[in-house]
Amino acid sequence: MVDIGSGSGRFLIWLAKAKCELGNYLGLEIRQKLVKRANCWVKELQLDNIHFLFANASVSFNNLISSYPGPLAMVSILCPDPHFKKRHHKRRVVQKPLVDSILCSLAPGGKVFVQSDVFEVAVDMRNQFDEKLDVLQHIDSVDPDISIDGDGWLRKNPMGIRTEREIHAEFEGAKVYRRMYQKKLI
Ligand SMILES: C[S@@+](CC[C@H](N)C(=O)[O-])C[C@H]1O[C@@H](n2cnc3c(N)ncnc32)[C@H](O)[C@@H]1O
After folding, report:
1. Which Pfam families would you find in this protein's record (predicted)?
2. What's the rounded Cα separation, in Å, for the pair 24 and 55?
3. Considering the entire predicted model, what is its pTM?
């Protein structure tokens, strides 16, 4: 699993501890200090199934992942930086080339999980992944236990582990908008 913009690493470290049977976890983060600190925690916790890499995912995702032997089970992009100003939207991490690379690297049945507490950013991510509904399907059409609200957002975090930003946003009373997709089997 790859978490893009892993921040403090909280989410991925908890996941790697809780679901060690599921495989390997890689966090990509553009802030080197956060990467260093997260890898220190990994060492202290003696986890051998997780690593954080200092990388600009927009530029390096494809290269990094193509050197990994085997397809990905999941890619998450959780509360990415919003870059509110219109002229800065091109700095948002979810752009067409990244979406295409993610879809290429996912195993059939592999999942993409995106969320944001900023509605406009969530809609932007949703639009970009909804454009790929020939390859992907939204998880509510696959898993009857998944509940979505009237606007198509997941009612709760399906991973059961929250990110740092998510905790902060929910503590402040904000809604977190979530979508999860699964790559079709054929
Ligand atoms: C708002 S924080 C959210 C962190 C974490 N996902 C969470 O939900 O708590 C966004 C993170 O993405 C990182 N980031 C932004 N652009 C990135 C890029 N192109 N590649 C990798 N990380 C990036 C930022 O440094 C920051 O740590």
Report:
1. Methyltransf_4
2. 18
3. 0.97
User: Structural domain of residue 132, as residue ranges?
Assistant: 2-183
Taking the centre of ligand 1 as the mean of its atom positions, its distance from the CA of residue 70, in whole angstroms, is 25
Low-confidence ranges of the chain (pLDDT < 70): none
Cα 101 from chain centroid (whole Å): 14
Number of domains in the chain: 1
- The yes/no answer to whether this complex scores an ipTM above 0.85 is yes
11-64 per-position pLDDT tens digit: 999 999 998 777 899 999 999 999 999 999 999 999 999 999 999 999 999 999
Q: Which two tokens stand for residue 12?
A: 């991925």
Site to substitute for ligand 1 among 125, 165, 167, 178, most atoms within 8 A of C-beta: 165
CATH number of domain containing 144: 3.40.50.150
Catalytic site residue from 3, 81, 100, 130: 81
> Ligand 1: does its nearest atom lie under 6 Å from the Cβ of 12?
no
Q: Is 81 considered catalytic here?
A: yes
Q: What whole-number distance in Å separates Cα of residue 52 and Cα of residue 26? A: 6
Rg, the chain, Cα only: 16
